[in-house]
Design a protein that fits this description.
With 227 residues, the protein is of the alpha+beta class. It has one domain. The chain contains nine helices and ten strands. The strands form two sheets. Strands 1, 2, 3, 4, 7, 8, 9 and 10 form an eight-stranded antiparallel sheet that branches. The radius of gyration is 18 Å and the shape is globular.
Length: 227
């Protein structure tokens, strides 16, 4: 682990000199471009943790430059929108990609009931970019999730390799994923990163039939989740 840590420090320092200048596609804060209120829904901000200490730990681990976390409620339907943003060159791609429901939620006690990678669908009259989809369960409650890791506006094609199965091989691979990431993507860190997670207590097939759900999808299109 010590050698691994030294390697990360070395590579991070190297990135400082190798990262090329890159244009941002999002010039404003997420709070400015994503609405607190969406027509047809009652919303509230959702903290990253249930305690101040937990919130501080999450901020330290994720090290993002901006984030948006909000739940939209209509009747018995709940839709959670979580978006995190990293400036070009601020974090290795693998450091962002590994913090997804397959790892963070599973470690926190969730179970993966169903999972599909590199999914492309139409949803709410929108052709979504390639994304990850799954059904996660905790304490008898299912949560339907889709998420994107966008690099310069394009989906991270390698995130499907990071499914968490708790097998020894998978766990080992994830511990040293930064090395695998270098093999996949080289030293390019010049792209901004956006992680978008959309989750609900209802399936997306049911949400598709809710005319007000389209309002949420339309608001997220500014992030580049659609073709």
């Amino acid at each position: 682990m010590v050698l691994g840590l030294l390697f990360v420090i070395f590579i991070t320092g190297l990135f400082t000199f190798l990262v090329p200048a890159a244009e941002r596609t999002i010039e404003k804060s997420l709070g400015e471009i994503l609405p607190e209120e969406v027509h047809g829904w009652v919303s509230q901000a959702v903290p990253l943790s249930s305690t101040p200490d937990g919130e501080e730990r999450v901020l330290d681990v994720l090290n993002f430059d901006d984030y948006f976390s909000r739940e939209y409620v209509r009747g018995d339907t709940r839709v959670m929108v979580y978006v995190a943003y990293w400036l070009p060159g601020s974090e290795p791609y693998s450091s962002v990609a590994i913090h997804n429901p397959d790892s963070c939620w599973v470690i926190a006690g969730w179970k993966i009931k169903d999972r599909e990678s590199a999914r492309k669908i139409w949803l709410a009259d929108c052709q979504l970019k390639q994304h990850e989809w799954g059904i996660y369960e905790k304490q008898g409650q299912d949560t339907h999730v889709m998420f994107w890791h966008l690099l310069g506006g394009n989906p991270n094609e390698y995130i499907e390799k990071m499914v968490w199965t708790k097998s020894g091989l998978d766990s080992f691979k994830r511990q040293f994923y930064f090395i695998y990431n270098l093999y996949q993507m080289g030293l390019d860190l010049g792209k901004e990163q956006i992680f978008v997670r959309l989750s609900s207590n209802k399936s997306f097939d049911l949400l598709e039939k809710d005319p007000y759900f389209k309002n949420i999808i339309d608001c997220l299109r500014i992030l580049g989740i659609d073709e």
